Structure formats: C-alpha cells, structure tokens
Records
---
Amino acid sequence: MDVELEKNWQDVCKKLSLQFDQDLDLQGILFLIGVQELGKGYKVFAKDEKLELMHIAVCTLLTSFGYYEFAGRDDQGWPHWNLNEKLPPLKPMQQELLVKEAIVEYFKGELTSDT
C-alpha cells in the first residue's frame, strides 16, 4: 500500500472509530457506508441484510471508478446497481487496496481534521 493511502486510511479509521466509540475495521466501515446509503437510519439488521448493506457499500464505492451505475431503488427502498465494467482479476490484497482507496475518497472532505 502506498504511504499516502495508508496514512489516509488510518485517518479515516481513527476518525470513524472515535465518532462511533468503537474500533472499526474495513468490514465495519463498509457496513456504515451501506447503512448511510440505504438511507433508513440505523436499526437491527438480519444477517442477510448486513451482507446486502456491505454489497450496497461496495457498489456505491466502485461507482466512482466506473464499475457500477446506480439503477434505482426497489419498492422497499433498497438501492440497486448495474454492472458497467467487469472488475479486472485482482488478488485479495489488490481488492482490499481498491476498496480502501474508494473509502478514503468517499469520506474525503466529510471528516474534518480535528485529531
């Protein structure tokens, strides 16, 4: 991971962990993004809904790279995307870096530097 991305990633993790008063990892941050993008506020989600929320987060994040396009919401208000471009074959570490880069971009400007 390049040094700047790692620093920015750690900043995002630290600020979100402080905001939510718990240590957050990649999965936890994806869950938070999914809840935010769903737009229904926090509630207790079933296991399958938690997975769907993480899928919402990944689609949202990869939209900025052109891989997905927002298609709309279903009758229950859940967002859906169309795949624009198939992701290139990536090793797990490369996938993680891509998602971390997208998360840093997602929160750029939203998290002020007060730490």
Note: The mean pLDDT is 91.
---
Amino acid sequence: MEDMDRIKRLRVNAVDSSSETDVSRRVFLGGAAWAAGCAVLWAANRILGRIPAARAQPEELTPQAYFPLAVKRYPQPKVVHVHAAAATSWDFQTGWYGEYVDQSVVNEMLERGLVELTGLGSVEGVWAMLLPGYSSGKKIAIKVNLNNCRSCDDSDNVIDALIEPVNALTNSMVQAGVQAEDIWIYDASRRIPARFYERRENQQARHIDRFGCADQTATFNHVHPSLRVSFSHPQMVTDRWLTDLLYDASYLINMPILKRHGTHPVTLGFKNHFGSLDSLGGAADDNPHPYINPQDDRYSADFSPLVEINANPNIAQKTVLTVGDALFGASSVGATPAPWTSFGGSPNSLLLSRDPVGIDCVMCDLLRAEWGLDDAAYDYLMLAEQWGLGTFEMGDPWGGGYNRLDYRYVKL
C-alpha cells in the first residue's frame, strides 16, 4: 500500500531524486558484465513483486552476444523537443501528407536535437557517444511504427511512420562513419510499404518487415532464449518472442509516433515494441490487450505488458536513443493527421531522449494538453520507473515545465 500511495502522489508531485532506491537508479549492466548485471535487474524486479520466483533468473547469454550498453540513469535526463514550422506544408486535404515534408529541414531538426541532447558539436562525437564501441559489422536496429499499413503499396492518409526522420538518422550516422549496410529499419509485425522504403536516401540500409514487402522478412526462429518474453501475470501464460534481429543487433533506436491510441490511452515508445513481438493474439485472458485497457476489468496499474516487454535485455540493454516523430501526430491510433490547436497546425516536431520513460512522459503531456488524457495514461510509466527503466514525471511542456526531467524546447 505504501508503494501505491507513493505512485499516486507522483501524479501531481515530482519526487526528489534522492528518494529513489539504488535498484531503480543505479542498475548498471555493461557488456562484459552482462550476466551479473542482468541478475541485478531481475532481482530488483523480483523484490518489487513484479516477477514470479520461477522466472526471476534469465538464462545466461552466450559470449557472442554483444551487449555494449548499461542501464544507466542520469540525475536529470534530457528530453529535447525541436520544433520547425517549415518541416511540413500539408493543407490537410490535398494528396498524401507524406509528400509535404521537407527533408532538409528534418535533417537540421535532428542534428540540432542530437547536439542539444549530447552537448557535442559534431556528428562524429554524437554517434561515438550514442554507439559506444561501434565498428563495421555491428548492427543498429531502428524500430519504426507502421501499424496502419495494410499492403505493400499502401496509399491511404492514416498516420504511419515517415521516411524523412529515418533518412535524417541514417544520413547523420553515415556521415559519422557508420556503414549504411549496418543499419536495419524494421517493423516486425507489419508491412513496410514501397512509398516508405523507395524514398530512402541510403540504399544499403536494410528495411525489414513481417510480410516481405521490403528488403527482407523479419524472422522469429527463437535464436536465443534472451528473446523470450514471459509475463508475470498469472493469467498470461503464453511466452512471446522478440524478432531475431534484436538479438543480432548491437544497438537499438526507437522511433514512435506522437499519437493517442484507443485500447491503451497512448501509443508511444513503449507500445511501439508491440511491433517487435511474434504474436499479440491469444484468447481471453492470455491476450495482452485487455491488460493495457484501463476500461477493462483485467487492467491494473500494478501490471503492464508494455513494461515487461521493454524490460527485455534486447530492448532495455540496447536502446541508445528514442526519437519521437511528431511531424504530424494523430488523435487516435488510426486517425488521419489534423491540425493541432497547441501548435497552430501540424506539430512539426521531433523529440529526442536517451531515457525511454522520460520521453514518453513528455509525449503524454503534449497529448494531454491537446486532447486530454486520463491519469491512467501514465500508469505504465510510473511502473517502468519502478522497474529501473527510466525517470517518471508528469509535467507541463507549455508552462511550468519539469523538475526531474531536463526538458529543452528548441525552435528553429
């Protein structure tokens, strides 16, 4: 009960960083020390009652697995919001909205955001920080959101990932010395349409989807036990599996879209990894969707499949950056972009952070300011902080700002 009372207070009051436990603030898992570090993270979650004893110890990773990162949280993690009115020019009715994005402006937005985020003045320095230990052959996976794509030649105006932020990322990495063939852009549960991958600016970057529309098809061959996702809820008995490419990748960049959902209040960075799983189906109580729906009797603030998926080491240990695509955004999961009151049109924004919890918090706040959100929209983020995955704060990006997060608004 004390934990729940503290969580409820987080809705309205920022918690001083000194009150956080060593478990949630200092879980440090390095490449060579992976096995010991993973035990610390799982033990922490076990102490919090989130993982049954039978699942508390993951299987040891083999030496060939490359885990270069540490689950390392910062006293005041940065969330950078870059806004450029010239990024898009769609009139909300003519043609496909994706044809009205200025690649050069998006490139400038990303570069400015990376500099602000890292404090470094060159793309070489930025990516040396974000991709520690990179050398040719080590893969960088970029998870995009094409949840609404229904065919290889999809051509509707429903919100989906745009190639321009991806091009900006790949251009920046290649400029810094990353080999384009080491970059994998994927959505392992959906199709990547031609109008997306045919407009890529680095032809050697690989596009990977579920149905073979792009360069190759995502596989789920269970190549390593670390890809298994087992849920702690007693009714969710089916093990799910992450796509094999997340084991083979050394680094991961998450690229959600700024939008509300329907089943879950929002679909942002954490929910984007529903698209990294082999299956989200299942009958009745074994289906993950009721457990993310605050209107369902099976929902509880104490459990979220989103958190347990994102706690998997192939996600938590490899995510170096989250880039929120807010060039258009949307009011629901399958909506067509529409003008935002708070932006006076399209949001024309990118958000960047190294803290996956902090950036989802800010994106939630932007959605709340525009369309309103119930407090339950933040439940998974408070739980994610308990799991040691990042820093939670509910704040006001248009007013008082934040105390625990270092929120930086940059207008170009």
Note: Confidence is low (pLDDT under 50) at residues 1-66.
---
Amino acid sequence: MKIIIDTNIIFSGLINSNGTIGDLILNSHNILEFYSCNYMRYEIEKHWEKLKRISKLSDSELDESRFNIFSRVNFIKEDLIPEKIWLSAEKLVSDIDIDDSDFIALTKYLKGYLWTGDKELYNGLKLKNFKRVYNSAELLSLRNHRN
C-alpha cells in the first residue's frame, strides 16, 4: 500500500524515531510503502535548527534519525505530476491549506493514501469526502491488522 507522508509526519518521525510515527515508518516495510515530495528534503534543511532545538538531539543524532527515516521513504520529483492532477489537488485544499497541495497531488498521482497529523487538513479532506487520508492511529491499526 502506497502511503504519502506529509511534513508534520516526517518532522515527528525525526524528532522521536522511537515513537509511534517512527515505529510506523521504520517497521512497516513489508506492508506499507512510503513516499513524499522531493521538496521535503529542502524543508528538513530549512528547519534543521528548529528540529534540533525541539528534539534536543545533537547534529549527529538528528542526522542518524534523518538517514533512518529517509531510507524508508521514496522521494518523488514534483515535476513528474501532470498539471491536471496539480490543479485538482489545489482546488481540493484551496480552502483548507494550499501549502498541502503537493501532498494531495502526489497522493492522487500515485493512487496512494495521505498520512497526516494535521487535524485541520484531515478533517477538511474527510468533509469533502476524500477517502484517501489516514491519521497515525488509523495507519497503526491498519498495519497491525495486516501484520
């Protein structure tokens, strides 16, 4: 099953790779395939100091966490996604958070499922009958039932 990971999930996994999110990413390789936008790599670099401050990890510890998390994620170049899908994604999230359109576009492009910890995005998508979205509790349950 293809799971597209958004920013807050990656950040949470980096900050605490021993928590539920880290466990899902690091220990689901026979059940779930993880994907994210290539832009995510830039986001991590941009927020590196904030991640260090929040996590209280050293550079080397956070770097190791990044290596472990990124080794389980397939990064997809955004320019592979057709314009029609981008427009559809932007329309879907225009009144929720337009910054999440890349994750929605990738979800549609890969015919996967979005994993988000953003309650506003999750609830907004559910209200619009977008069924290809999971929160962490749902994804954990799904993985545990498929194990």
Note: Strands lie at 2-5, 33-37, 73-76, 113-115, 133-134.
---
Amino acid sequence: MVEVASPWLARALADGSYRHWLALDTSGRVVGGGGVLLCPWPANPKDPCTERAVILNVYTEPEFRKRGIARLIMLTILAWLKQRGFRSANLHASDDGRLLYEKLGFQPTNEMRLRFDEP
C-alpha cells in the first residue's frame, strides 16, 4: 500500500487537493490524524460548490483513544472546510467512528457501492 499510495499522496499534498492534520503528544509523537480530499464536483441547485470534501484517514492510536483526539481533529477539519466555503462534507464511517460522526451532526446518506473485485 505504501508503495502505491506514496506517489499519489506526494502529488495531492503538493497541489493542495489533500490536507492532513496530525495530533501530537507532549513528546512530539503522532497519536492521531485525519485528512480531507478535495475533489472537483459539479455544482447543483442545493450546493453551488464545485468541489466536494471527503474526509479520510481519521485515526487515533489505540492507547490514546477516548480522550477526545479524534473529535478535536474532526472539529479542526470541519472549521477549515467551513472557512473555505464548503456547505457539506462526506465520509465513510467505521463502526468505531460512527458515534463520533453522528454526535458531530453527520447523517447517513443513500450512497451505494459496487465492487468489481468481488464475486
């Protein structure tokens, strides 16, 4: 995964289409993080924005969970998106993260997925 993702990540960070925030402990160790992918997207009558914000890679190291780190990361990402004029953000919630996202106001949508690599 690292071999495949590294060139993409380097390009996306350089062109600003991916932003990432890190949470550090007092020693400077990364204990969590989260990012947002900005994708070109057609405007529609309910949302004139021509970019879509997809929140990705929200993670907290297991020994640092239940301390509000993921919530702080999410609040930081959401504030950044609002400041840039986004009217919405999407994410795919893990079972562990769903409660946090619901508390922040995220609601399930009608998104569907088709996998080509599964029978």
Note: The beta strands are 18-24, 30-40, 51-60, 90-91.
